[in-house]
Amino acid sequence: MRSAAFVIILFLFFNAAGYDAGIGRQAFFSGEEYTVTSKLDGRAFGKDNDDLNWQLTARGSDLGSGKIQRENQEFTFKINELRPGMSISAALRFGGHGRQRPVIFSFFSRNPFGEMRQLERVKIGLYPGSSPVAGLLDRYQLPYEKLNSLEDFQEGIVFIGGADFTTQPELSESLQKGLARGLKIIVLPPVKGEIKMPAKLFTKTTPLQRQKIKDLRRGFDVLPLAYGIAPQVVGDMQRLRFSNKGMAAVTLESGRGQLIFSGWSLEDTTNPTGIYLLRYYIDPSDRNNSVENKD
After folding, report:
1. Mean pLDDT of the region 275-289
2. Cα distances (angstroms) measured from residue 55 to each of 36, 102, 123, 219
3. Mind listing the pLDDT tens digit for each residue in 88-102?
């Protein structure tokens, strides 16, 4: 678990405007204590100081503060549990440098779906029903239907928990029929092989690189990539190859239907990014449901 034993190494560098983090955002669950170890250059402490102040703030409120030592740079913090679905961003600073650029930490509620009343109206299907994704949906008490085939599902959102297009070539036709019915289909890891579909079927193709997960919602971490996607139009066909290289996600739009191949791994349930990515796929309008730090 990402708990007290969890350690992040923060590489902080100096420049004319003070020291900088250069690691981007980090995501945590609220209501849990974390211990972080920084690696500050000796110049942060000065010649005669063996300790240095640190402070974590959000919207003017102090979420945690204390001192680190030159030889022991561990510090511990915890914020109270947030309301269901809520997130906040906080600024971590060391010393008294007003011009220092902060490290940004984002905290997410442990209850991602509690306030989503629209879930009662959203139909969710899972194919195959035996997919490990079922455990994730069960854990957060999301209502869904286990499918024996995609043809069994007429409207709503379908999560496909793994596919091998080499051994399941018929799945391509099922996906196309689902798009024609206006389904939103999200294909999650593991995915292998290659799929070809008529290019004229799609009105828009949007690839996303690994780092672009942060464009989906403020506060996301960069998740591990379980598979990569190489999209290419060859003649009149849209071809997608799946391997350990390529884009992290590709969205294909067709009329009212949408087909999303998402290579980001959701295995680490101690990282809020994975489960909130699942929430984003259910409700993309939720991308900026956060309270940003204004310090």
Report:
1. 81
2. 13, 10, 44, 19
3. 999 988 875 555 678
Please report the DSSP string for 148-209 in residue order.
Answer: SSGGG--SSEEEEEEEETTT-THHHHHHHHHHHTT-EEEEEEEEEEEEEEEGGG-SEEEEE-
- Residue length of the chain: 295
d(CA 187, CA 158) in angstroms, rounded, equals 8
Place of tokens 């923060």: 10
Amino acid letter, residue 79: I
Question: Which are the contacts of 173, defined by CB distance < 8 A and separation ≥ 6?
Answer: none
**Amino acid (1-letter code) at residue 163:** A
Per the listing, tokens 């854990």 go with: 139
Average pLDDT, integer, range 267-291: 81
Question: What's the mean pLDDT when you consider all of the chain?
Answer: 85
Q: What tokens appear for 76 in the block? A: 């511990």
- Based on C-alpha coordinates, what's the Rg of the chain? 22
Question: Cβ distance 237 to 198 under 8 Å?
Answer: yes
